[in-house]
Amino acid sequence: MTSGAPQSNHARLTAAAAARLGLRAVLVLAGEAPATVGGNLLLDHLLGADVVWAGDVDDDALDARVHAEAEAWRRRGTPTEVIPFGGSSVTGARGYVDAGRELLEQVPDVDTVVVAVGSGGTMAGLVHALGAEHVLGVDTGAVGDAGARVTRFVEGLAGRAFRGSLRLRADQVGDGYSHLTPAVTEAVHLVARTEGLVLDPVYTGRAAAGLIAAVREGEVVTGRRTVLLHSGGLPGLFGHPDAVRLA
């Protein structure tokens, strides 16, 4: 059992992993059931997940709801494990510690890795592997205090207090999580039409918008090896309410 936004990539991947392993997946999603099902939500149903709608809730209320649902399943005699929101925990972040080390093997002279920051685990793993100075996070507005979450996971990975400084941009959130901004639209168009790569408007599109802003401001400069991490999320493009504006 896990929780997320209606178009949660993590929830969809949890459903896929559960299907592969022969387990039942229950997804507790914020919001109300939409009139039409598309994007990740369509895949959730295709993968056989049970979807529970939690209504208009904040992070804490969503967390409380998923644990209440889990306890209800346990009372019915079904052993139930809760995976944290976004899959982000110290354990989950270890996956991107490995990813960061693999990236270093491929690009030893990397100066900056740019990554979208949702629930914080991806950035935390990369910071542990590469060092805080080499990771530029772009906040997507998925959680209330992304910096605090990343710091907590970094400290958990290291087993000590984090004394460094995170490079975390908050200028691409716009009016809130998943809001399609002109900067994100520009980034999605630019990468599609120059690189043939498709970004989603919630995560990778925001990361690219943050990178473009960093280049324009001189934070990222020519001559240094910069990597934009494409962390997936393409199905969410087809479930985004404003996707038609990208055409």
From TrEMBL:
First-level EC class: lyase
Family: Belongs to the ACC deaminase/D-cysteine desulfhydrase family.
Cofactor list: pyridoxal 5'-phosphate
GO terms of biological process kind: alpha-amino acid metabolic process
Keywords, comma-separated and alphabetical: Lyase, Pyridoxal phosphate
Annotated GO MF terms: D-cysteine desulfhydrase activity
Stored Pfam families: PALP
Tryptophan synthase beta chain-like PALP domain: residues covered: 6-232
Protein name from the UniProt record: D-cysteine desulfhydrase
